[in-house]
Specification:
mainly alpha, 69% helix, elongated
């Protein structure tokens, strides 16, 4: 009995996921140039020809991997962005979520940290396509959140500067060679974001010049 379109789709997705996982592992061990398609096929337990059935070449495979992993991150990011929390709280949630993903999936974190800095070298003919993926799924949503924070008086610096500052802090937190300890995360995030947030004095912190009962104010 022939398979249904849904079954074929499920098989394709399963095999592509196998290939992605294998590619991440081989990339972590050998880097981009050492990640040969044959090695990825062996790691995935699939024939080399099947890899080329799904992907035109190695460049196509790794750009598809960038898109696949960023799309999953974007789904989590959208949940945070649409939560309605204050901007500072959403930025904190984004940073913690990114940390959690990096901690749970270190190969994906390492992949993006290294690939994103070498896009022009690794994908010279498709660099604009790769940059657009990072722009669409990561940079633009955070930039828009920064703009919202500035418009609402919650963020103290311009959106573009805030975006650069935020991602510098974020990548420092999850850097594969010096990832901060999980037990330090809460305090680190609050300290890191302190420079972004517009710290307004609460009414309770202002000086109350109402005379204490039983006394009178002295006129100068």
């Amino acid at each position: 009995m022939p398979r249904s379109p849904e079954q074929n789709r499920a098989i394709r997705e399963k095999r592509k996921k196998q290939i992605y996982e294998a590619a991440l592992g081989v990339y972590r061990e050998r880097g981009y140039y050492g990640a040969e398609m044959g090695a990825i096929a062996r790691r995935a337990g699939l024939g080399r020809g099947l890899i080329y059935y799904y992907f035109k070449d190695k460049q196509d495979l790794f750009i598809s991997l960038i898109r696949f992993t960023l799309l999953h991150w974007k789904e989590r990011l959208d949940d945070i962005l649409l939560s309605g929390e204050p901007v500072a709280d959403r930025l904190e949630l984004i940073m913690k979520s990114f940390y959690s993903l990096s901690h749970a999936f270190p190969d994906i974190s390492y992949f993006h940290q290294t690939v994103s800095r070498d896009v022009k070298v690794l994908f010279p003919e498709r660099e604009s396509e790769v940059y657009e993926l990072y722009e669409q799924y990561i940079l633009k949503p955070v930039r828009m959140l920064m703009k919202e924070g500035v418009d609402r008086g919650e963020i103290s610096i311009p959106p573009e500067l805030g975006e650069r500052f935020f991602f510098r802090l974020l990548f420092e937190a999850v850097h594969h060679e010096n990832m901060i300890e999980e037990k330090e995360l809460d305090q680190w995030v609050k300290t890191a974001l302190y420079g972004l947030v517009n710290h307004k004095k609460n009414d309770s912190q202002s000086v109350d010049d109402t005379p204490i009962e039983g006394t009178t104010k002295t006129k100068c």
